[in-house]
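Researcher: I'm preparing a figure for a lab meeting and need a structural model of a single chain. I don't have an experimental structure, so a prediction will have to do for now. The sequence is pasted below. Please return the structure as tokens so I can convert it later.
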Amino acid sequence: MADVRATVWGDGAVSAVFVHGIFSWGSDELYGFGNQRPLAEEFRLVMMDRRGHGASPDIEGGDYEVDADDIIALLGDGAHLVAHSYGGAGAMLAAARRPDLVWSLTLIQPGTLRPAAGHPVVDQALERARAGTAGLPAEMTPEEYLRASTEGIGMPVPPATPERLRAVRTAMRERPCWDADIPLDPLAEAPWPKLMISGTWEDAPELYRRYAGEPLIAAAEFIADRIGARYLRVPGYYPQVQQPGLVNDALRALWREARPEQK
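Model: Understood. Here is the structure written out token by token.
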């Protein structure tokens, strides 16, 4: 299998690997981590393109297990790890399998609901998803899926470029990250610091907040408590895009605290 690709910003001695969510790529300013580029003034940023996204090779559909292997390869001899949405599943698996390569773990609204099963809001979301009533109609075109997934939640609709539509097609066939079986014990036992970031969601469209935001917040709270992560909530519902200053400040502070030589 061909190697996954990444955009690298900065030449600092300390590296951080970023793992994006759906219908985006690492350096994407609209839905990826393009707004985190100012951190390259101090750190070396490795903006991963998950398979089927950006410059990385094609894959039949997104798969967090494949992502985990790719993330481990990108960590090299060690790096900070940051992941959003779908990327959170692969990042958590990678960190659980190779904690020796991780200097800190930041999860931004990970789409992993199954670890918080037992919480009423999460259980309802899992039931809807498993019944096939949580997603968008399967007969949608990539263009329709992109519009419904952005305009419908109050976010800007990006131009339907070939790059964007390729990422959307991958997302439409992805393995569901909400049902990923993530082992939390290795993350809880890891000595490095962890940070969970989620939005407050009060300004999100009502149905989006109820059916997506509330389960994501409940899962984030549960996972943060379970693995011993600090929990930061910021206004909005797409933290690194809507509140890049707050997110960047939190990452910068975390990385300065978690120096590799302290491992």
